[in-house]
Design a protein that fits this description.
The chain contains eleven helices and ten strands. The chain is an alpha+beta fold.
Length: 358
Protein backbone atom coordinates (compact mmCIF):
# COMPACT_ATOMS: atom_id res chain seq x y z
CA UNK A 1 0.00 0.00 0.00
CA UNK A 2 1.32 3.40 -0.95
CA UNK A 3 1.85 6.14 1.60
CA UNK A 4 -0.86 8.37 0.10
CA UNK A 5 -3.34 5.46 0.29
CA UNK A 6 -2.50 4.85 3.94
CA UNK A 7 -2.99 8.55 4.57
CA UNK A 8 -6.46 8.56 2.96
CA UNK A 9 -7.55 5.48 4.90
CA UNK A 10 -6.37 7.03 8.17
CA UNK A 11 -9.21 9.55 7.89
CA UNK A 12 -11.78 6.77 8.43
CA UNK A 13 -12.36 5.50 11.96
CA UNK A 14 -14.11 2.16 12.49
CA UNK A 15 -17.24 2.55 14.60
CA UNK A 16 -19.03 -0.80 14.14
CA UNK A 17 -18.77 -4.23 12.56
CA UNK A 18 -21.54 -5.05 10.10
CA UNK A 19 -20.24 -8.50 9.16
CA UNK A 20 -16.96 -9.56 10.75
CA UNK A 21 -16.78 -12.84 8.80
CA UNK A 22 -17.02 -11.05 5.47
CA UNK A 23 -14.90 -8.06 6.47
CA UNK A 24 -17.62 -5.39 6.35
CA UNK A 25 -17.40 -2.47 8.75
CA UNK A 26 -19.07 0.84 9.43
CA UNK A 27 -16.59 3.71 9.48
CA UNK A 28 -16.76 7.45 10.03
CA UNK A 29 -14.71 10.14 8.34
CA UNK A 30 -13.01 12.07 11.15
CA UNK A 31 -13.10 15.21 9.05
CA UNK A 32 -16.70 15.53 7.82
CA UNK A 33 -18.24 12.99 10.28
CA UNK A 34 -20.02 11.19 7.46
CA UNK A 35 -20.67 7.45 7.71
CA UNK A 36 -19.27 5.01 5.12
CA UNK A 37 -18.97 1.26 4.60
CA UNK A 38 -15.52 -0.30 4.55
CA UNK A 39 -15.04 -3.70 2.95
CA UNK A 40 -11.98 -5.91 3.02
CA UNK A 41 -12.34 -8.42 0.19
CA UNK A 42 -10.31 -11.59 -0.37
CA UNK A 43 -11.99 -12.50 -3.67
CA UNK A 44 -12.69 -9.57 -5.95
CA UNK A 45 -12.48 -7.99 -9.38
CA UNK A 46 -10.55 -4.77 -8.94
CA UNK A 47 -11.31 -3.59 -12.48
CA UNK A 48 -15.05 -3.61 -11.80
CA UNK A 49 -14.67 -1.58 -8.60
CA UNK A 50 -12.41 0.94 -10.31
CA UNK A 51 -14.89 1.30 -13.15
CA UNK A 52 -17.78 1.86 -10.72
CA UNK A 53 -15.71 4.40 -8.81
CA UNK A 54 -15.17 6.40 -12.00
CA UNK A 55 -18.62 5.69 -13.45
CA UNK A 56 -21.19 5.66 -10.62
CA UNK A 57 -24.41 3.77 -11.31
CA UNK A 58 -27.57 5.42 -10.00
CA UNK A 59 -29.12 3.70 -6.97
CA UNK A 60 -26.02 1.67 -6.19
CA UNK A 61 -23.51 2.59 -3.45
CA UNK A 62 -21.11 5.33 -4.56
CA UNK A 63 -17.52 4.06 -4.29
CA UNK A 64 -14.93 6.47 -2.91
CA UNK A 65 -11.78 4.39 -2.42
CA UNK A 66 -10.46 1.24 -4.10
CA UNK A 67 -7.11 0.19 -2.64
CA UNK A 68 -5.36 -3.12 -3.33
CA UNK A 69 -3.02 -4.36 -0.61
CA UNK A 70 -1.45 -7.76 0.15
CA UNK A 71 -3.86 -9.86 -1.94
CA UNK A 72 -6.90 -8.11 -0.58
CA UNK A 73 -9.03 -5.18 -1.71
CA UNK A 74 -10.10 -2.36 0.57
CA UNK A 75 -13.21 -0.58 -0.63
CA UNK A 76 -14.83 2.49 0.93
CA UNK A 77 -18.34 3.09 -0.29
CA UNK A 78 -21.49 5.04 0.46
CA UNK A 79 -23.60 3.88 3.39
CA UNK A 80 -27.20 3.42 2.25
CA UNK A 81 -29.89 3.49 4.90
CA UNK A 82 -33.25 1.81 4.59
CA UNK A 83 -34.92 -1.57 4.98
CA UNK A 84 -33.67 -4.62 3.13
CA UNK A 85 -36.15 -6.52 1.02
CA UNK A 86 -35.29 -9.57 3.15
CA UNK A 87 -36.53 -7.77 6.27
CA UNK A 88 -39.74 -6.85 4.46
CA UNK A 89 -40.28 -10.45 3.33
CA UNK A 90 -39.51 -11.77 6.83
CA UNK A 91 -42.31 -9.57 8.13
CA UNK A 92 -44.88 -9.77 5.31
CA UNK A 93 -43.98 -13.21 3.86
CA UNK A 94 -45.35 -12.30 0.41
CA UNK A 95 -45.97 -9.02 -1.41
CA UNK A 96 -48.81 -7.76 -3.57
CA UNK A 97 -48.34 -7.80 -7.33
CA UNK A 98 -48.26 -3.99 -7.42
CA UNK A 99 -45.40 -3.94 -4.90
CA UNK A 100 -43.51 -6.63 -6.81
CA UNK A 101 -43.89 -4.74 -10.09
CA UNK A 102 -42.62 -1.52 -8.53
CA UNK A 103 -39.57 -3.19 -6.98
CA UNK A 104 -38.66 -5.21 -10.07
CA UNK A 105 -39.03 -2.24 -12.42
CA UNK A 106 -36.61 -0.21 -10.31
CA UNK A 107 -34.22 -3.14 -9.96
CA UNK A 108 -34.28 -3.72 -13.74
CA UNK A 109 -33.43 -0.05 -14.30
CA UNK A 110 -30.28 -0.50 -12.21
CA UNK A 111 -29.32 -3.74 -13.94
CA UNK A 112 -29.91 -2.10 -17.31
CA UNK A 113 -27.22 0.47 -16.50
CA UNK A 114 -24.81 -2.19 -15.23
CA UNK A 115 -25.32 -4.27 -18.36
CA UNK A 116 -24.78 -1.21 -20.58
CA UNK A 117 -21.19 -0.89 -19.37
CA UNK A 118 -18.44 -1.87 -21.82
CA UNK A 119 -18.06 -4.74 -21.29
CA UNK A 120 -21.29 -5.42 -19.34
CA UNK A 121 -21.06 -5.77 -15.55
CA UNK A 122 -22.92 -8.78 -14.16
CA UNK A 123 -23.94 -8.40 -10.50
CA UNK A 124 -24.20 -12.18 -9.83
CA UNK A 125 -25.64 -11.88 -6.31
CA UNK A 126 -29.16 -10.51 -6.62
CA UNK A 127 -31.13 -11.52 -3.55
CA UNK A 128 -33.47 -9.85 -1.00
CA UNK A 129 -30.69 -8.98 1.47
CA UNK A 130 -28.82 -7.08 -1.26
CA UNK A 131 -31.80 -4.89 -2.09
CA UNK A 132 -32.54 -1.90 0.13
CA UNK A 133 -35.78 0.07 0.04
CA UNK A 134 -35.16 3.65 1.14
CA UNK A 135 -37.72 5.49 3.30
CA UNK A 136 -39.06 7.24 0.17
CA UNK A 137 -39.56 3.92 -1.66
CA UNK A 138 -36.47 3.99 -3.89
CA UNK A 139 -34.87 0.60 -4.61
CA UNK A 140 -31.10 0.39 -4.10
CA UNK A 141 -28.92 -2.52 -5.21
CA UNK A 142 -25.88 -3.09 -3.00
CA UNK A 143 -22.95 -5.52 -2.68
CA UNK A 144 -20.88 -5.59 -5.85
CA UNK A 145 -18.47 -8.12 -4.31
CA UNK A 146 -19.37 -10.87 -6.79
CA UNK A 147 -19.67 -8.59 -9.82
CA UNK A 148 -17.60 -9.36 -12.90
CA UNK A 149 -17.20 -8.32 -16.51
CA UNK A 150 -19.06 -10.30 -19.15
CA UNK A 151 -16.50 -10.25 -21.94
CA UNK A 152 -17.98 -13.10 -23.99
CA UNK A 153 -19.95 -16.31 -23.60
CA UNK A 154 -16.92 -18.60 -23.74
CA UNK A 155 -15.24 -20.30 -20.81
CA UNK A 156 -16.74 -21.03 -17.41
CA UNK A 157 -17.02 -19.40 -14.02
CA UNK A 158 -14.24 -20.78 -11.88
CA UNK A 159 -15.76 -20.05 -8.49
CA UNK A 160 -19.27 -19.79 -7.08
CA UNK A 161 -19.70 -16.18 -6.00
CA UNK A 162 -23.41 -15.97 -5.41
CA UNK A 163 -26.12 -17.29 -3.16
CA UNK A 164 -27.48 -20.81 -3.35
CA UNK A 165 -31.06 -20.71 -4.62
CA UNK A 166 -30.56 -17.42 -6.43
CA UNK A 167 -27.36 -18.25 -8.32
CA UNK A 168 -27.84 -19.32 -11.94
CA UNK A 169 -26.59 -22.78 -13.04
CA UNK A 170 -23.66 -21.24 -14.94
CA UNK A 171 -22.34 -19.81 -11.66
CA UNK A 172 -21.61 -23.39 -10.58
CA UNK A 173 -19.04 -23.73 -13.34
CA UNK A 174 -21.29 -24.88 -16.20
CA UNK A 175 -20.75 -21.73 -18.29
CA UNK A 176 -19.62 -18.11 -18.11
CA UNK A 177 -21.79 -15.49 -16.39
CA UNK A 178 -23.65 -13.14 -18.71
CA UNK A 179 -26.71 -10.84 -18.65
CA UNK A 180 -28.94 -13.93 -18.43
CA UNK A 181 -27.23 -14.80 -15.14
CA UNK A 182 -28.76 -11.74 -13.47
CA UNK A 183 -32.04 -12.39 -15.29
CA UNK A 184 -32.17 -15.85 -13.68
CA UNK A 185 -31.80 -14.30 -10.20
CA UNK A 186 -34.48 -11.71 -11.01
CA UNK A 187 -36.89 -14.55 -11.81
CA UNK A 188 -36.12 -16.31 -8.53
CA UNK A 189 -36.56 -13.01 -6.67
CA UNK A 190 -39.97 -12.35 -8.25
CA UNK A 191 -41.19 -15.82 -7.26
CA UNK A 192 -39.95 -15.37 -3.70
CA UNK A 193 -41.81 -12.06 -3.39
CA UNK A 194 -45.05 -13.51 -4.78
CA UNK A 195 -45.06 -16.95 -3.13
CA UNK A 196 -42.42 -16.92 -0.39
CA UNK A 197 -40.70 -19.98 -1.86
CA UNK A 198 -38.41 -20.92 -4.75
CA UNK A 199 -39.99 -21.72 -8.15
CA UNK A 200 -39.01 -25.38 -7.73
CA UNK A 201 -41.35 -25.57 -4.73
CA UNK A 202 -44.22 -23.53 -6.14
CA UNK A 203 -44.37 -21.35 -9.22
CA UNK A 204 -46.34 -18.11 -9.14
CA UNK A 205 -49.55 -18.24 -11.15
CA UNK A 206 -50.60 -16.42 -14.27
CA UNK A 207 -48.51 -14.04 -16.36
CA UNK A 208 -45.93 -13.58 -13.60
CA UNK A 209 -45.38 -17.32 -13.59
CA UNK A 210 -44.71 -17.19 -17.34
CA UNK A 211 -42.08 -14.48 -16.83
CA UNK A 212 -40.45 -16.41 -13.99
CA UNK A 213 -40.34 -19.60 -16.07
CA UNK A 214 -38.60 -17.79 -18.92
CA UNK A 215 -36.14 -16.09 -16.56
CA UNK A 216 -35.15 -19.33 -14.85
CA UNK A 217 -34.57 -21.69 -17.78
CA UNK A 218 -31.54 -23.93 -17.20
CA UNK A 219 -30.03 -22.94 -20.55
CA UNK A 220 -29.13 -19.21 -20.53
CA UNK A 221 -29.91 -18.99 -24.25
CA UNK A 222 -33.55 -19.91 -23.54
CA UNK A 223 -34.02 -17.04 -21.08
CA UNK A 224 -34.83 -13.46 -21.99
CA UNK A 225 -31.94 -12.03 -24.00
CA UNK A 226 -31.74 -8.80 -22.03
CA UNK A 227 -33.20 -6.83 -19.15
CA UNK A 228 -35.08 -4.79 -21.78
CA UNK A 229 -37.04 -7.92 -22.65
CA UNK A 230 -37.89 -8.49 -18.99
CA UNK A 231 -39.19 -4.91 -18.75
CA UNK A 232 -41.22 -5.42 -21.94
CA UNK A 233 -42.77 -8.57 -20.45
CA UNK A 234 -43.74 -6.62 -17.31
CA UNK A 235 -45.21 -3.87 -19.49
CA UNK A 236 -47.32 -6.53 -21.21
CA UNK A 237 -48.66 -7.70 -17.85
CA UNK A 238 -49.57 -4.15 -16.91
CA UNK A 239 -51.33 -3.59 -20.25
CA UNK A 240 -53.32 -6.80 -19.87
CA UNK A 241 -54.32 -5.80 -16.34
CA UNK A 242 -55.49 -2.36 -17.46
CA UNK A 243 -57.36 -3.88 -20.40
CA UNK A 244 -59.19 -6.23 -18.03
CA UNK A 245 -60.13 -3.33 -15.73
CA UNK A 246 -61.53 -1.35 -18.67
CA UNK A 247 -63.27 -4.36 -20.16
CA UNK A 248 -61.07 -4.37 -23.26
CA UNK A 249 -61.25 -7.72 -25.03
CA UNK A 250 -59.55 -6.85 -28.32
CA UNK A 251 -56.56 -4.61 -27.61
CA UNK A 252 -55.65 -3.88 -31.23
CA UNK A 253 -59.16 -2.99 -32.39
CA UNK A 254 -59.89 0.73 -33.03
CA UNK A 255 -61.62 2.84 -30.34
CA UNK A 256 -65.24 1.82 -29.99
CA UNK A 257 -64.59 -1.83 -30.89
CA UNK A 258 -62.16 -2.91 -28.16
CA UNK A 259 -64.80 -4.00 -25.65
CA UNK A 260 -66.77 -5.86 -28.34
CA UNK A 261 -69.99 -4.36 -26.92
CA UNK A 262 -72.64 -4.39 -29.69
CA UNK A 263 -74.19 -0.99 -28.89
CA UNK A 264 -70.80 0.71 -28.57
CA UNK A 265 -69.64 -0.82 -31.86
CA UNK A 266 -72.85 0.37 -33.55
CA UNK A 267 -72.26 3.98 -32.46
CA UNK A 268 -68.56 3.72 -33.37
CA UNK A 269 -69.42 2.42 -36.84
CA UNK A 270 -71.73 5.38 -37.36
CA UNK A 271 -69.06 7.80 -36.16
CA UNK A 272 -66.35 6.37 -38.41
CA UNK A 273 -68.77 6.42 -41.35
CA UNK A 274 -69.53 10.13 -40.79
CA UNK A 275 -65.80 10.96 -40.56
CA UNK A 276 -65.03 9.11 -43.80
CA UNK A 277 -68.09 10.59 -45.53
CA UNK A 278 -67.14 14.12 -44.42
CA UNK A 279 -63.53 13.65 -45.46
CA UNK A 280 -64.35 12.31 -48.90
CA UNK A 281 -66.98 15.01 -49.45
CA UNK A 282 -64.38 17.75 -48.98
CA UNK A 283 -64.08 20.24 -51.83
CA UNK A 284 -61.06 22.38 -52.66
CA UNK A 285 -61.46 25.31 -55.03
CA UNK A 286 -59.22 25.57 -58.08
CA UNK A 287 -57.45 22.28 -57.38
CA UNK A 288 -56.34 19.41 -59.55
CA UNK A 289 -57.90 15.99 -59.01
CA UNK A 290 -54.62 14.84 -57.40
CA UNK A 291 -54.62 17.69 -54.86
CA UNK A 292 -58.35 17.24 -54.21
CA UNK A 293 -58.01 13.54 -53.36
CA UNK A 294 -54.86 14.20 -51.39
CA UNK A 295 -56.83 16.67 -49.22
CA UNK A 296 -59.75 14.27 -48.80
CA UNK A 297 -57.58 11.33 -47.76
CA UNK A 298 -55.27 13.44 -45.60
CA UNK A 299 -58.05 15.15 -43.61
CA UNK A 300 -59.75 11.80 -43.08
CA UNK A 301 -56.48 10.43 -41.66
CA UNK A 302 -55.98 13.53 -39.47
CA UNK A 303 -59.39 13.18 -37.85
CA UNK A 304 -58.87 9.44 -37.46
CA UNK A 305 -55.57 10.18 -35.68
CA UNK A 306 -57.38 12.60 -33.35
CA UNK A 307 -60.03 9.96 -32.59
CA UNK A 308 -57.34 7.36 -31.89
CA UNK A 309 -55.51 9.82 -29.61
CA UNK A 310 -58.58 10.74 -27.57
CA UNK A 311 -59.59 7.08 -27.54
CA UNK A 312 -56.21 6.28 -25.91
CA UNK A 313 -55.38 3.68 -28.55
CA UNK A 314 -52.63 1.30 -27.38
CA UNK A 315 -52.35 3.36 -24.15
CA UNK A 316 -50.79 6.28 -26.03
CA UNK A 317 -51.83 8.73 -23.30
CA UNK A 318 -50.09 6.65 -20.61
CA UNK A 319 -46.95 6.44 -22.73
CA UNK A 320 -46.95 10.23 -23.11
CA UNK A 321 -47.38 10.67 -19.35
CA UNK A 322 -50.75 12.43 -19.63
CA UNK A 323 -52.49 10.03 -17.23
CA UNK A 324 -49.98 10.92 -14.50
CA UNK A 325 -51.41 14.45 -14.33
CA UNK A 326 -53.53 14.38 -11.16
CA UNK A 327 -55.43 17.62 -11.76
CA UNK A 328 -58.47 16.65 -13.87
CA UNK A 329 -58.93 20.07 -15.47
CA UNK A 330 -55.24 20.32 -16.36
CA UNK A 331 -55.29 16.80 -17.81
CA UNK A 332 -58.27 17.68 -20.04
CA UNK A 333 -56.57 20.89 -21.18
CA UNK A 334 -53.38 18.98 -22.06
CA UNK A 335 -55.39 16.46 -24.10
CA UNK A 336 -57.20 19.25 -25.97
CA UNK A 337 -53.92 21.05 -26.60
CA UNK A 338 -52.29 17.90 -28.00
CA UNK A 339 -55.35 17.08 -30.10
CA UNK A 340 -55.25 20.60 -31.56
CA UNK A 341 -51.54 20.16 -32.27
CA UNK A 342 -52.24 16.94 -34.18
CA UNK A 343 -54.63 18.93 -36.38
CA UNK A 344 -52.17 21.79 -36.95
CA UNK A 345 -49.26 19.41 -37.61
CA UNK A 346 -51.41 17.54 -40.13
CA UNK A 347 -52.36 20.75 -41.96
CA UNK A 348 -48.72 21.90 -42.10
CA UNK A 349 -47.59 18.54 -43.47
CA UNK A 350 -50.38 18.65 -46.06
CA UNK A 351 -49.25 22.10 -47.21
CA UNK A 352 -45.66 20.86 -47.55
CA UNK A 353 -46.76 17.83 -49.58
CA UNK A 354 -48.89 20.01 -51.82
CA UNK A 355 -45.89 22.25 -52.50
CA UNK A 356 -43.83 19.21 -53.44
CA UNK A 357 -46.33 17.70 -55.89
CA UNK A 358 -47.44 20.97 -57.54
Amino acid sequence: MRLDEECRLSFYQQIASLNEDHGVYLVQNISDKKIYVKKILKIYNVEVFRYLKDNPIKNTPRIYEVIEDSNQLIVLEEYISGTTLQQILDEQKVLKEEQVENIIRQLCSILLELHKAHPPIIHRDIKPSNIIISPDGVVKLIDMNAAKWSRNHSGRDTALLGTVGYAAPEQYGFASSCAQTDIYSVGILVNMMLTGVLPQERLARGAWGEIISCCTKMDPQERYNSIDQVIAAIDHIQSRSKDAERGIKCRYAPPGFRTLTPLTMLFATGGYFLIILSGFSLTVENSTPTVLWLNRIWFTLIFMAIIFFFGNYMDIQEKMGICKIRNTLLRIMVKLFLGFNILIAGIILLAIIEQIIT
